[in-house]
What does this fold into?
Amino acid sequence: MRKSALFLSACAVLVCTALARGQETDLAVSASTLFSTKLNSATQVYTPPPEKGGLYPGFSVTHTFNSLFGVENHLGFNVEVSGLAKRGLYNGFQGYRPFLYDFNAVYQAHVDKKTAIDGMLGFGGERLLFYHQTGGCVSPTGCQFMYNANHFLIDAGGDLRYTFWKHFFIRPEAHYYYVINNNEFHSGNLVRLGASIGYTFGAQ
It folds into this structure.
């Protein structure tokens, strides 16, 4: 998670310093929640829980090249990370916390001067942290990790950005994730719905 945060920070600095005419960079913070598909089989003795619910704060950087080499286009890239704000309970007893991060190609279309639509497709990963409930807590540092897992994911998403004041915007958004080998939960199909608020650097 720390490496992801450092990578995002580095991306933010690079894209902000590389701004040129006809380019835009959106920096945003978000709040969202997860939804998962229902379990189809009830014959299992042990049923993994669904990966859903909870508050997922996040951070994202979106950069678009509205004009590249003098030719108008709508392409760009996006980097984002989000994680469960409060430690959840796995099957009602085990503390856990998931983090999602992804890297996307972006197509952006401007509806008018204040409104833009983004479509994105990319890949990333999910990091799952599980915690000791008893016998593993060291005060004052809290609970140590008992187990963690990393999974590759493919994602697609879209958002609607509305600039409500100067360069400040609000952005409802939806993201679909297919998490490969997400064996800790009953499904690798996840949907994240939420909204971001942020600031646009560069041309609009």
In short: The helical segments are 2-17. The domain at 2-202 is CATH 2.40.160.20 (Porin). Residues 62 and 78 are 4 Å apart (CA to CA).
